[in-house]
Amino acid sequence: QLQLVESGGGLVQPGGSLRLSCAASGFTLDYYAIGWFRQAPGKEREGVSCISSSGGSTNYADSVKGRFTISRDNAKNTAYLQMNSLKPEDTAVYYCAVRYYCSGPVRDWGRGTQVTVSS
Q: What is the rounded distance in angstroms from the CA atom of residue 85 to the CA atom of residue 89?
């Protein structure tokens, strides 16, 4: 069974950090680009970041550039999103997804992990 599982979310104060993980089971992530998305209450889901299958190419939404870093460890079949200098507006459910390439459609979604930034 193909599955993506996010973890690492939680409650953090403004200015704090979290690292999200996206672990795949039932298939290998090696051949896929991995994207992180988020959806805040009452808003549409938006793309946050994406990393190519090789890890050689990454992109970020303007709202997170310089604060978030995407990475992957194909040996662990896992991707990460390091989030620093968190702001209240980063509060959302964060999802990882696999795609054949960063500009392509999503093939599979994880179930999401809640990130809440609040004092």
A: 11
List the one residue out of 44, 8, 9, 22 whose CA is nearest residue 110: 22
- Confidence grade of residue 1 (pLDDT, cut at 50, 70, 90): confident
Contact (Cβ atoms closer than 8 angstroms) between residue 71 and residue 80 = yes
pLDDT band per the 50, 70, 90 thresholds, residue 109? very high
CA separation for the pair 37, 25 (Å, rounded):
19
* Predicted local distance difference test score (pLDDT) of residue 34: 97
Share of the chain above pLDDT 90, in %: 97
- Output the CA angle 102-34-59, nearest 5 degrees: 50
First to last CA, the chain: 39
- Rounded CA-CA distance 114/18 in Å is 11
Task: Enter the DSSP assignment of 13.
Answer: -
